[in-house]
């Protein structure tokens, strides 16, 4: 896997000096063409495929993601501590997420469900929020972009999963722009009760799968639950410090895109993962992505037999996270201050990856505002 490293100078990312062909392959802005290549058709390519006007348009949309905004959203989430389900911290964080989404112009909806713990069958009411960028010409079909807002461990659950929640919110912020239109819809879902067994995502599937694609009221052009085309989950996005663990972000850190080989929609899920992998090659500025097939232990599992489902992570869940790749996992040290800009930037590269892929899938474009 190709490595791309960057120097950080006074907050500016300076791309590495690569030969022109390598830059074009990496999807970076090639700048001025060397005189020897000027006018040579087909040189500005990615894996033999010419860059297109659509690619340029998508690049413009992905470029609206803002690193500081991502960090600010993550910092905002950590003010509520670990946001453990059932606590006031959790309820306050849901209100805060809703307020942010509303401030960008979204109508925010709440899914209400009953949670029963494994040790106490007392029914406990719970809630989670979602908001939707409605497609212009095919509003009745959508991709779901998700992360879990609940956490555990007594710290701030900054990485697990403030990092994914902030990523979903930052993408929502960009797509809220009045001058961005999409053909199909995108739903941003901030699951609750992931840490207790994916209960929030499972409740969503149970309640809303039967409503897919139904226009309601009839003739209104409104689809309360657009047909699911794919589900992209984000869970623990920042810490790829290798295994055995290194103190600093490794230079060959990458975004892991997982799907589940043993699922009914494995073929469709692998294609969705490939779309994300290619989006990473075109649009991510610092870190590459890799694919693997053992997606597990996150909210996309609730969808994997119904629709294409993938999860993006800092490490493979079973082979790395489960074997101690992140010492902050579910610990009081999962704090905002435990992470550096090199860590935040891995999460930000996952945001570039997902937005690039989703923008292509829903045919996002910038239109002149009146
Ligand atoms: Zn998690």
Helices and strands in order:
Elements: E1 7-9, E2 12-14, H1 20-26, E3 45-46, E4 49-50, H2 53-62, H3 67-78, H4 88-103, E5 108-115, E6 124-133, E7 138-148, H5 158-175, E8 180-181, E9 184-191, H6 199-208, E10 227-234, E11 255-258, H7 266-283, E12 289-292, E13 309-313, H8 341-361, E14 365-366
Parallel strand pairs: 7-9, 7-10, 10-13, 11-12
Antiparallel strand pairs: 1-2, 3-4, 5-6, 6-9, 8-14, 11-13
Helix pairs in contact: 2-8, 3-5, 5-8, 7-8
The structure holds zinc ion.
Report on this model:
By secondary structure, the protein is of the alpha/beta class. It has helices spanning 20-26, 53-62, 67-78, 88-103, 158-175, 199-208, 266-283, 341-361; strands at residues 7-9, 12-14, 45-46, 49-50, 108-115, 124-133, 138-148, 180-181, 184-191, 227-234, 255-258, 289-292, 309-313, 365-366. The strands form four sheets. Strands 5-6-9-7-10-13-11-12 form an eight-stranded mixed sheet, sandwiched between helices. Strands 1-2 form a two-stranded antiparallel sheet. Helix 7 (266-283) links the parallel strand 11 and strand 12. Helix 2 (53-62) packs across helix 8, helix 3 (67-78) packs across helix 5 (158-175) and helix 7 (266-283) crosses helix 8. The longest helix has 21 residues, at 341-361. It is globular, with a radius of gyration of 20 Å. It starts with 6 loop residues before the first strand and ends with a strand. Mean pLDDT is 90; it is low at 1-40. It binds zinc ion. The site of zinc ion has 6 residues, from helix 5.
């Amino acid at each position: 896997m190709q490595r791309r490293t960057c120097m950080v100078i006074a907050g500016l990312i300076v791309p590495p000096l690569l030969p022109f062909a390598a830059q074009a392959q990496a999807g970076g802005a090639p700048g001025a063409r060397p005189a020897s290549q000027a006018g040579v058709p087909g040189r500005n390519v990615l894996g033999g495929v010419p860059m297109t006007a659509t690619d340029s348009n998508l690049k413009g949309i992905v470029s609206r993601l803002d690193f500081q905004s991502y960090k600010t959203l993550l910092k905002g989430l950590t003010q509520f501590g670990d946001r453990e389900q059932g606590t006031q911290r959790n309820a306050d964080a849901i209100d805060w997420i809703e307020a942010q989404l509303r401030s960008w112009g979204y109508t925010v909806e709440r899914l209400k469900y009953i949670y029963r713990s494994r040790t106490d069958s007392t029914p406990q009411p719970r809630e989670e929020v979602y908001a939707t960028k409605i497609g212009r010409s095919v509003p009745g079909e959508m991709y779901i972009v998700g992360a879990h807002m609940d956490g555990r461990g007594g710290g701030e659950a900054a990485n697990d999963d403030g990092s994914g929640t902030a990523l979903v919110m930052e993408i929502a912020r960009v797509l809220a722009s009045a001058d961005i239109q999409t053909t199909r819809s995108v739903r941003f879902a901030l699951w609750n009760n992931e840490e207790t067994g994916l209960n929030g995502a499972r409740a969503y599937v149970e309640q809303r799968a039967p409503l897919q694609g139904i226009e309601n009221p009839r003739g209104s052009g409104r689809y309360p639950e657009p047909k699911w085309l794919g589900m992209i989950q984000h869970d623990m996005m920042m810490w790829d410090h290798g295994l055995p663990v290194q103190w600093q972000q490794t230079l060959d850190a990458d975004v892991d895109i997982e799907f589940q080989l043993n699922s009914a929609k494995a073929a469709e899920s692998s294609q969705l993962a490939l779309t994300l992998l290619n989006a990473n090659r075109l649009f991510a500025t610092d870190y590459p992505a890799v694919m693997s097939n053992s997606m597990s232990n996150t909210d996309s599992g609730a969808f994997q037999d119904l629709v294409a489902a993938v999860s993006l992570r800092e490490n493979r869940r079973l082979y790395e996270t489960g074997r101690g790749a992140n010492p902050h996992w579910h610990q009081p040290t999962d704090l905002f201050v435990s992470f550096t800009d090199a860590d935040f930037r891995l999460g930000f590269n996952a945001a570039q990856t997902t937005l690039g892929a989703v923008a292509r899938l829903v045919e996002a474009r910038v239109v002149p505002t009146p």
